[in-house]
Design brief:
Blueprint lengths: L13 E6 L2 E6 L20 H16 L6 E6 L3 E4 L4 H6 L2 H24 L3 E6 L1 E4 L1 H7 L3 E5 L5 E3 L2 H5 L7 H8 L4 H7 L6 E2 H6 L5 E3 L4 H14 L18 E3 L2 E3 L3 E6 L4 E7 L9 H7 L4 H19 L5 E7 L2 H13 L4 H18 L4 E6 L5 E2 L3 H6 L2 E4 L14 E2 L16 H5 L4 H9 L4 E2 L1 H7 L8 H17 L2 H12 L6 H16 L3 H4 L4 H4 L14
Parallel strand pairs: 2-3, 3-5, 4-6, 5-7, 6-8, 7-10, 14-15, 15-16, 16-18, 17-19
Antiparallel strand pairs: 1-2, 8-9, 11-12, 12-13, 13-14, 19-20
């Protein structure tokens, strides 16, 4: 079982050092520390285990080190920054593992960019050695790339010429969309295995700064200080600890404090039930800080995030996730109000951003999402985002015949109107009603109202609102039908339908790149017995099917 929980004391591949406003995160991969499989992590190449530690470090820097305003990514090894994803790992991994690995690394790089854009924690990279493939893609996620000008240090994206795949972590998109490298230059750069170094790398905007090796330390310190000066992180604050996440795993489910997952392998489903706070949440910044990692929105984000990753990697055959909630709507509304009222506080800002990233992870998961809104549910505000993220939602009109629970309601709060955007930059509400401003306006007018099934259906907030007589059959048929369709077709369909509206760097990476990489990773030119990935390093040239499709 792959476990995404870790701690700096347990890192094998990264060294984290904090000095006032500057943190240094040095990649020093343990060659014998592969997460699984018989391969060696040479030249600071990485596998999923390396990236799990990186994702943990990014998270801890945001919550545990509020005074850190700039982060320097560097190498702990001489003459090499990072050789990218380990080729032997990719060559021997299953298709599912390769695609899941690429998606997770993309999400980690996006978290770095989110820290720079929204948390005031600016990131830079110091490259003093080869930065190839995923190594350069890691640098591309940062605000500033400093390159040693010594005639040998180079940046490269050699996947196309050497491996017959695409850069798997957004490199193509970031080169042209983020760094605005001219298309013809990008074409050359992405089709040469040797890479680009020195003056040309700077002129082509592949890096931001050149320094001689003798001045590297001084240049890094100066640039990090300048980035830190431009930050709005607090001048005085104490971070909150992110303790080990309590979780129980059994053969048929997972259990956290606020998230429970029931696995039904016969039906191919995982049912995620998310609970509201069981007591009124703190609403003032000092009280929120005192609650720390137990503050419900933060606890929810951590638990749901871990559950999503666990299901992605450890339960790939469970193709439908059923989303449920439970608890008191007023408690969720109070937590949402606390987030909205204290949005300028550094910790509250980080919690909202973490919720945003977790819900984005749900959006881009290759699973069918079905929300069930029943008596006893609590689809309010932040939890209503789960239903808005679903591909289809059912809300019971009335109560069950044998139940004394009142009919279900849903409630919009300020958290549904913009603080938790999707990868397209729009709220889930705005994405739902894209192109229909009147419908969006009607929904926004209902913020704060408890809406029964008839009202929610009229506003377009749910897909279907069957009564007690039809409920069981409609839900059962929908779930059984999902299990009967091709999982490949469903993944493509869902990814195409979920992100209406503007295309962004993120939607290009997760929609366009993931789709093409998913296809390329199955082609004989890549993974066949004579494919480039299988033969890499053997000295034998691959044999390609020359038909262009």
């Amino acid at each position: 079982m792959i476990d995404f929980r870790t701690h700096p004391d347990d890192y094998r591949h990264w060294r984290l050092a904090v000095d006032g406003a500057i943190a240094t995160l040095a990649l020093d991969v343990d060659e014998g520390g592969a997460i699984a499989g018989d391969y060696t992590l040479k030249l600071n190449s990485y596998d999923l285990g390396v990236d799990i530690e990186l994702a943990d470090a990014v998270q801890r820097l945001r919550f545990e080190h509020p005074l850190v305003r700039a982060v320097v990514l560097a190498s702990g090894k001489d003459r090499v920054f990072c050789a990218g994803a380990n080729i032997s790992m990719l060559a021997t991994s299953s298709h599912i593992d390769k695609v899941n690995f690429c998606k997770f690394t993309n999400e980690t790089r996006n978290a770095i960019e989110d820290a720079s854009a929204n948390s005031g924690q600016r990131w830079m990279t110091a490259i003093a050695g080869t930065a190839a493939g995923g190594g350069y893609e890691l640098a591309l996620a940062t605000d500033h790339i400093l390159l040693v000008d010594d005639g040998s240090t180079a940046v490269s994206l050699p996947e196309v010429p050497l491996l017959a795949v695409l850069p798997g972590t957004g490199g193509l998109t970031r080169v042209v969309d983020k760094r605005c490298v001219r298309r013809d230059r990008a074409d050359f750069f992405c089709t040469t295995g040797e890479g680009v170094r020195g003056r040309r790398a700077l002129e082509w905007n592949l890096v931001d700064e050149l320094v001689p090796r003798s001045r590297l330390d001084d240049a890094v310190a100066a640039r990090a200080a300048a980035l830190a000066e431009d930050s709005d992180r607090p001048a005085e604050a104490k971070g909150i600890a992110l303790p080990p996440l309590a979780r129980t795993v059994t053969d048929d489910g997972l259990a956290y404090a606020h998230v429970h997952v029931a696995l039904d392998r016969a039906r191919g489903t995982a049912t995620l039930t998310v609970s509201a706070p069981d007591a009124p949440p703190p609403v003032e910044p000092d009280a929120i800080y005192a609650a720390g990692a137990d503050f419900w929105p933060l606890a929810l984000a951590r638990e749901l995030d871990d559950a999503i990753l666990h299901l992605r990697f450890n339960e790939p055959a469970l193709g439908t996730w059923i989303l449920k909630t439970a608890g008191e709507a007023d408690q969720v509304a109070a937590a949402d109000a606390a987030l909205a009222a204290n949005a300028g506080d550094w910790l509250v800002r980080e919690i909202a951003l973490y919720l945003k990233r977790t819900l984005k992870r749900l959006d881009v998961s290759a699973r069918s999402l079905v929300a069930l809104i029943e008596p006893g549910s609590c689809f309010t505000g932040t939890l209503l985002e789960l239903a808005l993220a679903a591909d289809r939602s059912f809300m019971l009109d009335g109560s069950f015949e044998d139940s004394n629970l009142p009919p279900a309601t849903v409630r919009l709060t300020a958290m549904n109107t913009g603080p938790l955007p999707m990868a397209n930059g729009l709220s889930r509400l705005a994405s739902r009603f894209f192109g229909d401003d009147a419908a969006l306006g009607n929904a926004l007018d209902a913020v704060g109202d408890d809406l029964d099934a008839e009202a929610a259906d009229a506003l377009g907030l749910v897909t279907f609102a069957p009564d007690d007589i039809d409920w069981e059959d409609e839900v059962r048929i929908a779930i059984e039908a999902r299990a009967a369709f091709s999982p490949d077709a469903l993944s493509g369909m869902e990814a195409s339908l979920r992100f209406a509206g503007p295309e962004t760097l993120e939607t290009k990476i997760f929609g366009r790149l993931s789709a093409w990489q998913n296809w390329i990773f199955q082609r004989p030119n890549t993974v066949g017995p004579d494919g480039a990935l299988k033969l890499y390093g053997s000295g034998v040239q691959p044999t390609f099917d020359r038909n262009r499709v």
